[in-house]
């Protein structure tokens, strides 16, 4: 230790003496100027708005790439699901519902390219986003069809372990939602006093083969969505048209339209978050008849804490869903209730528990009873751990 102390003292003395020597090239009495510090790095531009439902949290790794930047992130979920079968037998299953990796390239605020991959399910998102003049933007590739607020919302923001009945019906049975190849024109009003956004585009048909006889159309599904934000309330309206023959089992043109609302209300140390939506339409897929159907869903969660990345939080939640496959028929409704609790560190990890109860009428269509291995009427308990990186 004495030797180290002497060495440090000697180095400090030499540095002080060197700093005190005058530069012979300067006139006498001139004080040498300190070198200017290097210019600060230009801050990264904020990412353009993205509400396509990407399931990967904001990335924590940023890598320079020429004039742009590459962001890398991911998410891993481990879930235990215990279901009751129609014969009252309970069974359990351990699964990995999400093993996601995402890479995003950004060039200032003008261009973005996203590739999101799930190790088990394959490619999820893969699209390019281009900023255009006058508030317009163009998105092309594979991403979510803008129908149904809760389906479009990223699962990283939802308190749910899984979306339940409406996910089974809207995506798996009716092929209305989910990710598909398509192109979308977006517009945001820059001169409005309120936040107004419009989106319109076409997506590849949900037909299993991805091909449609040209006599039945071009094999694309047009969709539209508009949102209006007033303070902490967002109001939305959406519509989708399914041309004849665009999905398996349908020979008539179908349509779906919906209204939705999203609200975040500060309460105590956290916020009460609420989503609500109603969708109506016509389809022959559910009942074999071109009857009117209705779906509705409401979800609310009270997040106590959180807000800042890494902050601890607790969030109880409840959700109620209903499906009426044909409003002209009786005893064909399906109800589902879900309740649960989340605890964890905001945007880092969370432990989730969810209980579900689903009840179906006596005249529920066969398409609905076939969902999730004939679990139209069921009870379930889910436990999940989710880690974001």
Description:
The relative contact order is 0.12. Strand 13 and strand 14 form a beta hairpin. The model is unreliable at 1-49 (pLDDT under 50). This protein has helices spanning 2-20, 149-152, 165-173, 366-369; strands at residues 61-65, 68-84, 90-107, 111-118, 122-131, 136-144, 179-188, 195-204, 220-230, 233-242, 254-267, 270-283, 291-305, 312-324, 334-345, 349-360, 378-388. The protein has a domain at 75-97 and 147-388: Porin, CATH 2.40.160. The chain is mainly beta and 389 residues long. The chain has a 16-stranded antiparallel beta barrel with strand order 2-3-4-5-6-7-8-9-10-11-12-13-14-15-16-17. It has four helices and 17 strands.
Provide a quick synopsis of the model.
This protein is mainly beta and 389 residues long. It is 9% helix and 51% strand. It has helices spanning 2-20, 149-152, 165-173, 366-369; strands at residues 61-65, 68-84, 90-107, 111-118, 122-131, 136-144, 179-188, 195-204, 220-230, 233-242, 254-267, 270-283, 291-305, 312-324, 334-345, 349-360, 378-388.
Task: Supply database-style keywords.
389 residues; mainly beta; 9% helix; disordered N terminus
């Amino acid at each position: 230790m004495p030797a180290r102390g002497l060495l440090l003292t000697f180095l400090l003395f030499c540095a002080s003496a060197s700093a005190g020597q005058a530069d012979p090239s300067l006139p006498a009495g001139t004080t040498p100027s300190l070198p200017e510090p290097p210019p600060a790095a230009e801050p990264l531009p904020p990412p353009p708005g993205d509400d396509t439902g990407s399931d990967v949290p904001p990335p924590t790794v940023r890598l320079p790439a020429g004039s742009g930047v590459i962001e890398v992130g991911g998410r891993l979920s481990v879930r235990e699901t215990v279901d009751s079968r129609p014969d009252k037998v309970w069974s359990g299953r351990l699964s990995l519902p999400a093993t996601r990796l995402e890479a995003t390239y950004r060039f200032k605020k003008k261009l973005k390219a996203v590739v999101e991959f799930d190790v088990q399910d394959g490619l999820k998102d893969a699209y390019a986003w281009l900023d255009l003049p006058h508030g317009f933007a163009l998105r092309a590739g594979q991403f979510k069809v803008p129908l149904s607020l809760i389906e479009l919302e990223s699962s990283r923001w939802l308190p749910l372990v899984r979306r339940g009945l409406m996910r089974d019906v809207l995506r798996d049975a009716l092929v209305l939602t989910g990710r598909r190849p398509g192109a979308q024109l977006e517009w945001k009003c820059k001169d409005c006093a309120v936040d107004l956004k419009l989106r319109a585009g076409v997506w590849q048909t949900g037909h299993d083969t991805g091909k449609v006889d040209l006599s039945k159309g071009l094999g694309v599904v047009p969709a539209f969505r508009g949102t209006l934000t007033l303070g902490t309330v967002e109001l939305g309206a959406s519509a989708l048209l399914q041309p004849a023959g665009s999905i398996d089992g349908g020979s008539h043109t179908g349509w779906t339209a919906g209204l939705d609302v999203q609200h975040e209300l500060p309460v105590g140390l956290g916020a009460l978050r609420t989503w609500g939506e109603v969708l109506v339409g016509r389809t022959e897929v559910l009942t074999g008849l071109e009857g009117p159907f209705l779906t509705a869903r409401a979800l609310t969660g009270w997040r106590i804490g959180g807000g800042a990345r890494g902050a601890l939080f607790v969030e109880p939640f409840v959700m109620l869903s209903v499906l009426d496959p044909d409003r002209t028929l009786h005893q064909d409704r399906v109800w589902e209730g879900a309740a649960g609790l989340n605890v964890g560190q905001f945007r880092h990890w969370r432990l989730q528990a969810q209980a579900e109860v689903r009840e179906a009428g006596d005249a529920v269509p066969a398409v609905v009873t076939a969902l999730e291995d004939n679990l139209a009427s069921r009870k379930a308990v889910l436990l999940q751990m989710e880690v974001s990186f």
